Amino acid sequence: MSTATAAEIETTPSSEWMNGAHAAQRIVTAQVFAGQTPEQIEGKWAEANAVYDAATATDAQRDWHAGAMHTAGELIQTYRTARAADAAGVTPRQPAPGLRPG
Q1: d(CA 75, CA 54)
Q2: Which residue positions in the chain have pLDDT lower than 50?
Q3: Total-model pTM
């Protein structure tokens, strides 16, 4: 078994969609830890989306925006579901470390 050298390893830069998704993950996580409700977070994202103009955006900007909005929506829904479960007294079997404000 041989080990590849750095020159032999093919790397691919992350796509703009993934960059947007990663940014959304960082932002939504910070909003959760700051104590914002899912509704407050959703409102902030709606405000940001209201000023976005797909007609003037480049392809890369549209891809970044699509990744960010998709991921933010998924995370907000997950947060909403987790809060509803907490309110109902449902305890997850294996909570993901670092995903709940504490």
Answers
A1: 23
A2: none
A3: 0.75
